[in-house]
Amino acid sequence: MNYSRKQQLRKIIAERKRLLTENQFIDLSEKLFFHLESLPTFQKAKIILLYHSLKDEVRTHSFIEKWKEEKTILLPVVEGENLKLRIHKDSSSLRTGAYGIEEPTGKLFTEYDKIDMAIIPGISFDAHGNRLGRGKGYYDRLLPDIKAYKIGICFAFQVSEDIPTEPHDTKMDLVITENGALNEK
Ligand code: ADP
Ligand code: MG
Question: Which residue, 30, 53, 57, 111, has fewest beta-carbon neighbours within 10 Å?
Fold first, then answer.
């Protein structure tokens, strides 16, 4: 029952995304990161887990470029069923990995306790911090090991009233859209 509800939500949101132009994706992403940058938690954070966006996700490329000198940016790499983390140095050292995602090539980063903030993509989030992903559970397997403050990011049209969750789903501490933060859980 949960499964089909999750699938239904993924489909609705994919349809909404198709209505957006490239410029709208970029503009909304810029607005979203403006809110994120205003958080003291972000300003203080030194080591940040981010993701290198695909075409249908909140765009992170220019945000990563902007902060990569001042902060340590970690990006996920797909290894089989799991996400591992590597430090992002510069865009020229990225290589296309599984699912067409650009991934860093440096050595693995394993000191998960040192991560200050995790910025997590999602198909949908709700105001309780629940997350809906693409359905493969990659972040569900990674996040239990990461104690850092977790921020889910998505556009406002991706927010759901109530996301069906299962015991393996990890909650976000905060969800941010282009309109600012949703109510903290
Ligand atoms: P998503 O989080 O990508 O939206 P789901 O929460 O529906 O996807 O999870 C997808 C699948 O991932 C689950 O049905 C489950 O088989 C698998 N999964 C999730 N968490 C774990 C885990 N901790 N260990 C093993 N498999 C997991
Ligand atoms: Mg999940």
Answer: 111
For range 5-28, the mean pLDDT? 96
Please indicate whether residue 133, judged by its CB atom, sits closer than 6 Å to ligand 1.
Answer: yes
State the first-to-last Cα distance of the chain, in angstroms, to the nearest integer: 25
**CA-closest residue to ligand 1 atom 10:** 137
- Position in ligand 1 atom list of the atom nearest CA 144: 23
Q: How far apart are CA 136 and CA 82, in angstroms?
A: 10
User: Rounded to whole angstroms, how far apart are CA atoms 118 and 120?
Assistant: 6
**Phi, psi dihedrals of residue 176, rounded to the nearest 5°:** -125, 135
- Tokens representing residue 69 in the block: 């000198």
What pLDDT, in 10s, does the model give residues 24-49? Answer: 999 999 999 999 999 999 999 999 99
> Tokens at residue 158, please?
């991706």
Per-residue pLDDT for 3 more than 80? no
Q: Measured between alpha carbons, how far is 11 from 14 in angstroms, rounded to an integer?
A: 5
Q: How many residues does the chain have?
A: 185
Burial pattern 9-25, b for ≥16 Cβ within 10 A else e, equals bbeebeeebeeeeeeeb
Q: What sections of the chain are H helices per DSSP?
A: 2-17, 22-37, 40-44, 61-67, 138-142
Q: What is the pTM of this model?
A: 0.95
